[in-house]
Amino acid sequence: MVPRSRSMEKRNYSLRQPAPRPPQADMVFGTQSVLETLRSGKEIERLFIQRELGFAEIEKAAKEAGIPYQRVPIEKLNRLTRKNHQGVVCFVSPIRYVPLHNVLTQVYEEGKTPLFLVLDRITDVRNFGAIARTAECAGVQALIVPQKGGAQVNGDAMKTSSGALNFLPVCREISLVESIRYLRDSGLQVVACSEKTDHSPYTIDFKVPTVIIMGSEEDGISKELLDLADTGCRIPLLGKVESLNVGVASSIVLYEAVRQRTQ
After folding, report:
1. Residues 22-74: pLDDT tens digits?
2. What whole-number distance in Å separates Cα of residue 52 and Cα of residue 44?
3. Residue 195, number of CB atoms within 10 A of its CB
4. What's the order of all strands across the beta sheet hosting 189-193?
5. CATH fourth-level superfamily of 26-92
6. For domain 100-262, which CATH number applies: 3.40.1280.10, 3.30.200.20, 3.30.70.260, 3.30.1360.20?
7. Where in this protein does the record put region Disordered (predicted)?
8. Whole-prediction pTM value?
9. Strands 44-50 and 88-92, how do they pair?
């Protein structure tokens, strides 16, 4: 359990955003514009730097802010914008990410039972948006995503979520492995939704503090995360198709948790 203190109780983390933010990630390009955006403290969703060029000041600012960046060929930048990008483009996120520790602390302080959802390398923005919509409706208190290798939170994701991403706390973590270890040490059971188990989700006790892991569209949950799971669950498939869309699978598992918690 996360220890409580009077000093923590006085804090207001404002995890649920009171009003919708602009539904589209804003593109910023050009060396000076990008540099000032990095220094402004805004949430950066993606940062692309031309592979052949050196931008020491921008790279330094990105590292200091903990913002990952990709070195890409000029052709990719030209596809993003036909304007004079000067070899660097970034996207300002339409949401504000929140620290995982803050969310968990507040959930415990409010006397609620944690129900968190981890998305391991889910890259399709529409899947991401649909999962966020279901998660918010199901009372999930935090959506946990990797800093690298996940879907971009852009206009398509916002639209598919039907506004849920304005209210559902999203935690963007450097290491999902460390995040899951932290949650497990804080009293949450770790449930991996994977075909590599014979357990049905209907046999798992979701009334206890729980974090559910959903894996990528390509190869499911990574072995590192599977090894951290306390248990796994496999949705029964009675037809000839061998798998479900990850968004549909997330809905089934989350609403089994809802069913148990509302009985």
Report:
1. 344 588 999 999 999 888 888 888 899 999 887 889 999 888 888 888 899 99
2. 22
3. 14
4. 170-173, 142-146, 115-119, 210-214, 189-193, 231-233
5. Ribosomal protein L30/S12 (3.30.1330.30)
6. 3.40.1280.10
7. 1-22
8. 0.81
9. antiparallel
